[in-house]
Queue: 2 jobs
Job 1
Amino acid sequence: MRLLTILGSTGSIGTQALDVVRRHADRFRIVGLSAAGMNQELLVGQIREFLPPTVAIADEEAARDIEAKLGPVRGVEFIVGPDAAERLAAETEADIVLNALVGSAGLAPTLAALQAGKTVALANKESLVVGGELVMDLVKGEPERLRPVDSEHAALAAALRGERREDVKRVVITASGGPFRGWTRSELARASVKEALAHPVWQMGPKITIDSATLMNKGLEVIEAHYLFDLDYSQIHVLIHPESLVHALVEFRDGSLRAEMASADMRLPIQLALGWPERLPSTVAPVPLTDRPLTFEPVDREAFPAVDLAYRVGGLGLTFPAVMNAANEVAVMAFLEGKIPLTRIVEIVQTVVDEHEPASIVSAVTIERADRWARQRAAEIIDER
Ligand SMILES: NC(=O)c1ccc[n+]([C@@H]2O[C@H](COP(=O)([O-])OP(=O)(O)OC[C@H]3O[C@@H](n4cnc5c(N)ncnc54)[C@H](OP(=O)(O)O)[C@@H]3O)[C@@H](O)[C@H]2O)c1
């Protein structure tokens, strides 16, 4: 029986993780749930069903409403406030903390869980983009304590199992291409919020869905792969694969290529991360091999400049990735609020990155400062227009 805490239990990954727990109730017991507090009925239902000893809620007013809606339930304690997820990650008796928070707010809970000796199943890719060096420092010599949930990285971890690092020549992570595959830059400038939220393959939270429409998501994943698998950026490649069945490929120095395939269902990488090293049975549909051909194409780098920007920022290192991520979070929100066109997102991120004067070392303090500066600068640029 593994004791499990889920940060972001009301989100897309969080709810799917609870599906996995329902199916494997003999394997996992929920000891902590956390959310911002925006989906109150859902969280109340989760608390009643899983009876976690501790629940963390970021928003204080929402926490009061949730406690009132819940009524008297014995044995459930609340942690409330902006740092509630971080405290939950450190304090509860979990074996595994699944971090399914969205954005750079996920970094502190990832660090807290690892510092407390827990294993982290990481969906929150922003933790690695923003604080890759800090996170990887905490799992030096025990890489199994950090398990990727992102489908491409879960696929890479599986494909690299038992292989010698020096035999790996390069890796390829795939992208479906999102809703705007084949669109030109001028067409993209007119894309609506509704069109951008209509991802052809994955049902995800709004932030990652917009990141998938600009391909910033793939840029973030390149940086994530760099840290997770200690790969040079020149060894990490991106290909568009609209069928979304091959999630990653590893090419070895003898020329052989290993593709890791699965139907597009996040419950599989979630369950792999929670059950590791075991492969538990699942209801995920088998890969349809004869339905349609598998195709791969290069990224249109002119229409989708986010990928090249991420390679550049990753190569620069220091506080640049934190700045790229923070500016992107602000610009994505502005797009969702109808303040800027889709193509402005990456332009704004680029401008903020170009203006950034990096700190000479990476620490929690310098990352925090860079993140704050980038958010403010991105907001100013948005307001100027
Ligand atoms: N969705 C996918 O298929 C997918 C695939 C690969 C990777 N990922 C990564 O997984 C992470 C989660 O994505 P998602 O799509 O599941 O996001 P989502 O649906 O937007 O869910 C986010 C969750 O985090 C909670 N939350 C947000 N801000 C918080 C805060 N400050 N403190 C505490 N809780 C907070 C939300 O609570 P409320 O409900 O109360 O707002 C919600 O439970 C992201 O990093 C994403 O890139 C997602």
Job 2
Amino acid sequence: MAHDDKAAQARALRDALSAFATGVTIITTRGADGEPLGMTASSFNSVSMDPPLILWSVTKTAWSGPAFRDAPHFAVHVLASDQSGLSNTFARPGEDKFSGVDTADNANGVPTLPDAAARFDCRNWAVYEGGDHWIIVGEVLHFERQKREGLVFCNGGYATANPIRPPSTAADEPSGESDVDNMLFYQLSRSYRQMAQQVHAAVIECGLTLPEWRILASLDPSSSRDLPDLAARTFVEPHALPDMLQSLAADDLCSVAVDGDRMTASGTEKGAARVAHLLSMSTALEKTALAGTSDAERDILYTQLKRIIANTNT
Ligand SMILES: Cc1cc2nc3c(=O)[nH]c(=O)nc-3n(C[C@H](O)[C@H](O)[C@H](O)COP(=O)(O)O)c2cc1C
């Protein structure tokens, strides 16, 4: 196989594997000289209940790979949904990952991190060859659980796990139609509310406010929008927009241009990356919401909704 084909195959394989949603862990240990070591790993999985075994795999080329292979003990931290920053810190090679992180040694002298959704203190039980990785099996000696939602990694990005609500059955529905069922206002607000629920929870989990999410979702790097346009799209009061936009711009999540008293904003790559998983979640939800709807019906629905927006845009 030509080199380019091989590289393309590898990319395609990685992409296909990324469809498998996993949790995210940080695994810590001490090196032979006692230095704290840690790395982000999503290859963690449970293996056996008796004896209690877990596994994960470490790439042989990782700086800390050989140390993990040889360490007698390690600790697995299952990250909570607000710990993607910590995950990024421990995924960077060659940094002092522990500086500024509050650690405490466990009974085996392994540095542990606070606030994980779960922690498993392990003894190195076996190491297997796994191609360019070592598969490390650990025996769980002690574990701790906090009632925190776990962080998810899927399609190359962080996400949160939101339970899928089972489709409501006839028994869940109020019996009989009432006048309100024939009100457009009721149908629109109920469908919006049901669709928005999961996305809004994910927005808050990723540290954005709902107005910030609406702003970032409305912007793209190749075009700009002025304040009246953005205000209408985001339900943010026009007078509140400049501050919000400047604060997003300070984090490089959008860029702002001022020309006289006209302010415009456009997206940045960082802003787009921040909301990418929320947009794919919205698209997936839309598919679910429109299950059983033909393309023609969908087009009519959109035309009608746009007409309602235009007719009521006072
Ligand atoms: C979400 C995520 C999951 C990862 N999972 C693994 C993994 O399971 N095994 C692995 O060897 N590297 C994994 N990595 C990459 C390592 O965290 C990265 O190579 C890190 O630099 C290793 O630490 P070190 O350079 O200090 O050895 C993952 C990175 C991310 C962002």
